[in-house]
UniProtKB/TrEMBL annotation:
Keywords: ATP-binding, Cell inner membrane, Cell membrane, Ion transport, Iron, Iron transport, Membrane, Nucleotide-binding, Translocase, Transport
Organism: Kitasatospora acidiphila
Enzyme Commission no: 7.6.2.9
Signal peptide start and end residues: none
Family annotation (Pfam families): ABC_tran
InterPro entries per UniProt: AAA+_ATPase, ABC_SmlMolc_Importer, ABC_transporter-like_ATP-bd, ABC_transporter-like_CS, ABC_transpr_FbpC, P-loop_NTPase
Residues of the ABC transporter domain: 4-233
Enzyme class, broadest EC rank: translocase
One of the record's GO cellular component terms: membrane
Stated name of the protein: ABC-type quaternary amine transporter
Length: 348
């Protein structure tokens, strides 16, 4: 069943168009991530869904209810949509329980608050005030408050942006588990690709006010529609290849294709697919590398006669030779043909 359906959505701010005919479907119970560069319209999209910003045209429907179209505008408070802003925005003068129970009917309120404190992993902290909690705990209270009225859809606008990397990863995993336990449909806005890849059932990449591609994290990472989507999800080497049905001949070797292709085209090689190999067909100079704990990120300049990009990125398990050394490179795994290539370097 379709939880949220958006069709032909256009929205503007002060006369300039931000959303330009956007279509998006999020299945009931799914966790979706909206990903895109700063200013592409992610928050505007959430605000339209929440009912805080009126679109110029298009339709927004939640299950079988139309929330907005040319004739309909359901006000925010009647949408049954929860909204969790970046900073959590807790009421400082209310206790944790007061924050979570705010606006709930008196009957059953205390039980519901207890249930939510349990769900977000803060049992027994109902009497504290927000200033007596850590940043991560405050975000969990904000999540409990957003879930309290059992919304049909929960919108999270960069809810982890203010937290440090470790806390962020932990809380992201907890929130995903909490949302699944609550059976909630949720949309998370982020410009953090790791967040999108680890959190989402479905990722929608926004570009020029529309969805450039939507799909599972695996689809978008390994089978992006074009070079720009590929780069939105992580570092990418885009190389020229001769496509021959189910395989591609590249300067780095012949590789199986994830989708059939023919003629001269461009294919995707993620940095983990490049390896330093004495038998490799490409000579390259190490430009620089750095150790990242789990691997080394290596920038390489291949010999110009291979027709490869000026710079390739490889992630290797073993340390590469020092900058300036010459190595040989090979590629492994399957490669994906890039359709309708518009190889723009992402902004921001
Ligand atoms: N209230 C407003 N008035 C005028 N212009 C606005 C307003 N809010 C947003 N904009 C503009 O609309 C565009 C989209 O903004 P939006 O906040 O939706 O982008 P975003 O993708 O969420 O960005 P970020 O990742 O930086 O939060 C931007 O160009 C922004 O300057």
């Amino acid at each position: 069943m379709s939880g949220l359906t958006i069709t032909g959505l256009r929205a503007d701010h002060g006369g300039s168009q931000v959303l330009a005919g956007l279509d998006l479907t999020v299945a009931d119970g799914a966790l979706a991530c909206v990903l895109g560069p700063s200013g592409c319209g992610k928050s505007t999209l959430l605000r339209v869904i929440a009912g805080f910003h009126r679109p110029s045209t298009g339709r927004v429907a939640l299950r079988d209810r139309t929330l907005a179209d040319d004739r309909t505008w359901v006000p925010a408070e009647r949408r049954r949509i929860g909204y969790m802003p970046q900073d959590g925005a807790l009421f400082p003068h209310l206790s944790v329980a007061g924050n979570i129970g705010f606006g709930l009917p008196r009957a059953g309120r205390r039980e519901r608050v207890e249930e939510l404190l349990e769900l977000v992993g803060l049992p027994g902290l109902g009497k504290r005030h927000p200033h007596q909690l850590s940043g991560g705990q405050q975000q969990r209270v904000a999540l409990a408050r957003a879930l309290a009225p059992a919304p049909e859809l929960l919108l999270l606008d960069e809810p982890f942006a203010a937290l440090d990397a470790v806390l962020r990863a932990d809380l992201r995993a907890e929130v995903a588990a909490t949302l699944r336990a609550a059976g909630a449909t949720a949309i998370l806005v982020t410009h953090d690709q790791d967040e999108a890849l680890s959190f989402a059932d479905v990722i929608a990449v926004v570009r020029d006010g529309r969805i450039a591609q939507a799909g599972t994290p695996d689809e978008l990472y390994h089978r992006p529609a074009d070079a720009e989507v590929a780069r939105t999800l992580g570092e990418a080497n885009i190389v020229t290849a001769e496509l021959d049905g189910d395989s591609a001949a590249t300067a780095l070797g012949r590789l199986p294709l994830t989708a059939a292709g023919a003629g001269t085209g461009q294919v995707l090689l993620r940095p983990r697919q490049l390896c330093l190999d004495e038998q490799g067909s490409v000579r390259a100079r190490v430009l620089r590398s750095h150790f990242r704990g789990h691997d080394h990120r290596v920038e390489l300049a291949p010999d110009p006669d291979h027709g490869l990009p000026e710079r390739l990125i490889a992630y290797t398990d073993t340390a590469p030779p020092e900058a300036g050394s010459t190595v040989r490179l090979a590629a492994t795994g399957a490669t994906h043909p890039m359709g309708g290539v518009q190889d723009r370097v992402p902004v921001g």
